[in-house]
Design goal:
Number of helices: 11
Distance between the termini: 65 Å
CATH architecture of the largest domain: 2-Layer Sandwich
Structural class: alpha+beta
Helix content: 40-55%
Radius of gyration: 32 Å
Length: about 375
């Protein structure tokens, strides 16, 4: 009977308890709660209406190095590091006025004076005739903060390296390509067929290297937050026509035809045309390279309820397997490209740029039938 009364669901039928049984149930349940309070893996503090500490558990004492009697009766804000007092006080005051919980990452001073990174959750208690006004749960996030700081340092160092190397490589590469152009243009005399072929190959390799340098520089800009979009109203049909005109030589090289469908698409869209152009050029170029000489379709349509637009680039190439599809967004990944050249960064950059525009880039593919890349852009980008 007592086990039924103590279960979370209670007895199957309503039971009238005698005062003695009711007291026994409360006593046992209280013991269970006391045990849970003490063995909890987070530090827990119970406070009264004056923010004075009523109870603390063992993990709190271990975390901050206090003895129990040193904490009981103290105001909880005495543990706040002075530099954080105003900020946390405002958060707590606002939560108190709105009658809701608070959650934030901050620092606390331990008994020995050292600082501890903690995540805290404060919640008011609404028990009638209870001296407890609320509780605060502390979790030690020192290791998490160290990992985040180490990651941030590594990313910053990598971006500095990318930026420095990219800038240092672009200048001599541009010089090499300029002299190749001069040679091919006859500035130093006519070239023999063998010489011309050699210079053209060297120019092609230099252009490929410059593409890689530019892609790495773009990736560094995106990840460091330096790729900022600019608001402008773009005439969609003219814009898309310009993108297809830019890749027409590539389409001819691969024997593909280009088809543009705008259907019910809006006449204009608010976005950053420079970034959008970069994304679409990447998608269309890939479709032409892997399209096996078959038509490539670019389609634009309006999303339901005026949520924005959807741009699709579809090819009829060899497609991508379901297992490989998630990997196409990874950096420096090239999947069985059948000899097509690339840096392995294009799709990774395109997806990040889609995010910069407030949209998202997705792909679906059927092996042997082709692939479709779908760019969704919001009607009201968050950066506007």
């Amino acid at each position: 009977m007592l086990s039924d009364l103590l279960s979370s669901e209670g007895p199957s039928d309503p039971v009238q308890l005698s005062p003695a049984d009711a007291e026994a149930v409360l006593r046992v349940r209280g013991a269970h709660l006391e045990e849970l309070f003490e063995v909890a893996p987070e530090g827990i503090v119970l406070v009264d209406m004056d923010d004075r500490v009523l109870r603390v558990n063992g993990e709190f004492l271990r975390m901050f190095g206090f003895e129990r009697e040193e904490v009981l009766g103290r105001r909880i804000n005495e543990l706040i590091v002075p530099g954080h007092l105003a900020e946390e006080g405002e958060v707590v005051s606002r939560a108190g006025r709105e009658g809701r919980s608070i959650s934030l990452d901050t620092v606390r001073r331990r008994r020995d004076g050292t600082l501890l990174d903690v995540s805290l959750l404060g919640k008011p208690v609404h028990f009638e005739r209870s001296s407890i006004a609320g509780y605060v749960i502390y979790r030690d996030i020192t290791e998490r903060k160290r990992a985040e700081e180490a990651r941030d340092r590594a990313v910053a160092q990598r971006n500095r390296f990318y930026s420095t190397v990219s800038h240092e490589l672009r200048t001599p590469l541009s010089g090499v390509m300029l002299y190749h152009d001069l040679l091919l243009g006859g500035a130093y005399g006519e070239l023999t067929p063998a010489q011309r072929e050699g210079v053209e190959r060297a120019q092609h390799s230099a252009a490929h290297l410059l593409e890689l340098v530019n892609d790495v520089l773009d990736l560094a800009k995106i990840e460091s937050g330096r790729m900022e979009p600019h608001r402008e109203s773009v005439a969609l049909r003219d814009f898309l026509g310009g993108v297809l005109a830019a890749v027409h030589p590539l389409a001819a090289e691969h024997g593909c035809t280009l088809e543009l469908r705008t259907g019910d698409a809006p006449t204009r869209v608010v976005t950053d045309s420079r970034i959008l152009r970069q994304v679409l050029l990447n998608l269309v170029s890939n479709a032409l390279k892997f399209g096996r000489g078959k038509p490539v379709r670019v389609e634009c349509r309006e999303l339901p309820d005026g949520e924005g637009i959807c741009l699709e680039v579809s090819d009829q190439g060899s497609g991508i397997s379901a297992a490989d599809l998630p990997r196409i967004w990874e950096e420096f990944v090239q999947l069985g490209n059948g000899g097509a050249e690339g840096t392995g960064l294009g799709l990774a950059i395109a997806r990040r740029l889609a995010g910069v525009l407030g949209g998202r880039l997705e792909a679906e593919s059927v092996p042997g039938e082709g692939s479709t890349f779908r760019l969704r852009l919001p009607a009201h980008p968050p950066y506007l």
